[in-house]
């Protein structure tokens, strides 16, 4: 099956990124072009960004996006601070989420799309998030998820490492984008939830919603050709809604920083 998966990846590879170095900033710029040029995929990102914008709490503090290079969240959150781990077009600051040169309690939210699973040490990230996000603020993300279906797709057809069996949250750092464990969000917020809650009592896991078993696969993502035309998006989305999250390839996750003396308040409060 591994050989078949390699053949399929080769046959379906997007011509703009075929053989591209994942850690080259030029590849990130190409991915932004790909997202904008594929109607089905762009609808997915529009939906993701609208979801993250809805997660943002009101009140003081800026919104920081990690891994902004290939995206366009600013169209949904105009005052967002965009960042990337290397210099590239369209970002405000070069920043590592594990070491953030930002003032204490200066953020109302940190948001990310397909970034958390690239953090070699999520404990360092949450240490920094605890310092920089104000009480009542959130960390919100759209990330890969673990299901029987997604295990098959991510291990056979995807280029990134996907290791649900990993016992450690950390993985050896390599390139900024090539280093990853796609199963990390599931490991931290589902399998090892009790560990997270014990180590980071300042945070409450408010939402974990697995979703999207088919649409991203059919879109081809940023590395493969699209398998579905843009006009089919609504029908496929409606069909997915009948699955109730079964076979999910992604999850919408929101973690809120507790207020002193209170548990937490609702999103948007």
Structure notes:
The chain has helices at residues 2-12, 25-37, 39-55, 122-132, 148-156, 184-191, 193-199, 215-219, 233-241; strands spanning 62-66, 81-84, 93-94, 107-113, 133-144, 203-211, 250-257. The protein has 269 residues and is of the alpha/beta class. It has a single domain (2-257), classed as Vaccinia Virus protein VP39 (Rossmann fold, 3-Layer(aba) Sandwich), CATH 3.40.50.150. It has a 7-stranded mixed β-sheet, sandwiched between helices. Helix 6 crosses helix 7. The longest helix has 17 residues, at 39-55.
Q: Give the amount of beta strand, in percent.
A: 15-25%
CATH class: Alpha Beta
Radius of gyration: 18 Å
Query: Could you tell me the number of beta strands?
Result: 7
What characterizes the major β-sheet?
Answer: 7 strands, mixed
- Which secondary-structure class do the elements indicate? alpha/beta
> What is the count of DSSP helices, taking H or I runs of 4+ residues?
9
Distance between the termini: 49 Å
Architecture, according to CATH?
Answer: 3-Layer(aba) Sandwich
- Count up the domains: 1
Enumerate the spans where pLDDT stays under 50 for 5 or more consecutive residues: 264-269
Sketch the topology as an H/E string, one letter per element.
HHHEEEEHEHHHEHHE
Q: Mind telling me the CATH superfamily name?
A: Vaccinia Virus protein VP39
Helix content: 25-40%
Strand order of the largest sheet: 3-2-1-4-5-7-6
In CATH, the topology is named Rossmann fold
Arithmetic mean pLDDT = 90
Taken from the alpha-carbon principal axes, the silhouette is globular
């Amino acid at each position: 099956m591994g050989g078949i998966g390699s053949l399929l990846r080769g046959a379906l590879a997007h011509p703009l990124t075929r053989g591209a170095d994942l850690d080259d900033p030029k590849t990130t710029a190409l991915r932004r072009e790909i997202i904008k040029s594929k109607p089905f995929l762009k609808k997915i990102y529009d939906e993701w960004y609208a979801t993250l914008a809805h997660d943002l709490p009101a009140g003081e503090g800026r919104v920081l996006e990690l891994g902004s290079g290939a995206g366009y969240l600013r169209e949904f959150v105009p005052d967002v601070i965009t960042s990337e781990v290397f210099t590239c077009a369209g970002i405000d600051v070069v920043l590592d989420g594990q070491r953030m040169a930002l003032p204490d309690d200066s953020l109302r939210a940190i948001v990310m799309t397909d970034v958390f699973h690239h953090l070699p040490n999520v404990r360092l990230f949450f240490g920094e998030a605890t310092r920089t996000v104000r009480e009542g603020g959130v960390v919100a993300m759209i990330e890969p998820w673990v299901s029987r279906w997604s295990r098959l797709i991510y291990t056979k057809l995807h280029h990134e490492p996907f290791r649900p069996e990993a016992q450690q949250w950390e993985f050896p750092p390599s390139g900024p984008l090539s280093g990853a464990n796609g199963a990390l969000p599931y490991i931290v917020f589902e399998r090892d939830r009790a560990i997270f809650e014990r180590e980071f009592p300042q945070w409450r896991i408010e939402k974990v919603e697995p979703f999207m078993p088919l649409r991203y696969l059919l879109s081809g993502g940023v590395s493969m050709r699209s398998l579905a035309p843009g006009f089919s998006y609504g029908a496929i989305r409606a069909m997915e809604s009948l699955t109730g999250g079964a076979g999910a390839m992604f999850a919408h996750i929101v973690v809120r920083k507790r207020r002193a003396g209170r548990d937490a308040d609702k999103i948007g409060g």
